[in-house]
Write a structure and sequence with these properties.
3 strands, DUF1059, DUF1059 domain-containing protein
Length: about 60
């Protein structure tokens, strides 16, 4: 059985009330879905995320 990866927005500091969660076959897919979620649900521009933010978010992507 292959591993899937997930990200739950509620695990991100300050986003505890957000029900958004993405699950995908690869970490790259999860990142693309995370970025899309940030744009659609939160009006964020993922291209503005600095290295520190991306490192923090990386800790929230977990194997299913």
């Amino acid at each position: 059985m292959s591993t899937a990866y997930s990200y739950a927005c509620k695990d991100c500091e300050g986003m505890e009330d957000c029900p958004g969660k993405v699950v995908a076959a690869t970490e790259d897919e999860v990142w693309k879905l995370m970025e899309l979620h940030a744009v659609v649900a939160h009006g964020e521009d993922p291209s503005s995320w600095d290295g520190e933010t991306r490192e923090y978010l990386k800790t929230l992507v977990t194997p299913e």
